[in-house]
Amino acid sequence: MLFSFDFTDMPIIFKDVTYIYNKGTPIEKTAIKGLSLSIGRGELVAVIGRPGSGRSTFLQLLGGLIKPTSGSITVSPGNSSELMACSGVGVVLQFPERQFFEKSVYDDLSFPLRRAGISEREIETRLRDALNAVDMDFHTYRDRSPLEMSSGEKRRVAIAAILVLNPEVIALDEPLAGLDGRGKREIVKELKRLQGEMGKTVIVATQDWEGILNICNRVIFLENGNLAGDGGAELIREVASRTSTIQSLRNALKAMGIDLGNGVFDAEETFLRIKMAAEHQFAFK
Asked: From the DSSP assignment, how many helices (H) and strands (E) are in the chain?
């Protein structure tokens, strides 16, 4: 089921984009197939799908880390090229520690700015603003090694490293992976702040779509590199019934006579409903 969006301001346009890994070899694989879509300015979009659906490839294409085998991508008006021109996109990788190479947060975040010839005074202002934007105190974190932080702190520093460059679009690959409940809530809070308070276009490629269910206003669903769905809450509910691990657990419990009820809910709500169902059963024994 496809939903159309009528945006007058489209900073991102994919037009018939295909990407093939190892083209011309025996292990050739088409990861994205003739993908056409537009993303409006200021949206918070989740790109979801099963492993191998093309989520990460989509993000790499968007960020200019790879170029399309065919088709074109436009980022911001007038910035179009089949060779991929995406100067307005900042990408946060799934494993943020791979983005760090300096001894301190200050040195890491200031590196690209220093190379661009920006003054030290301006650099400090940008770093202070970027860290504050992800709820991290500048003086507390400036001299800390990013490699010695918690997973949640690393994710936030990685986001700050993108913010110092002030991109219009921020794309994140599996930002909730490997985090505990508190870490996930912190990152979800920052994603909403990036969109709502800073006016950024935020695109999240994730398997853990339940974690951002309540903040994204649009879902792009990929299957085997194809656009299988594009919509809002209706699509989320449809995808939930087919792909969610929580839904699979609910179905298994229902077959055992434990009905958790209807609706789309996250892991924490699932646990509470299981607990209530168990207490209810024991109460009648």
From this structure: 9, 10
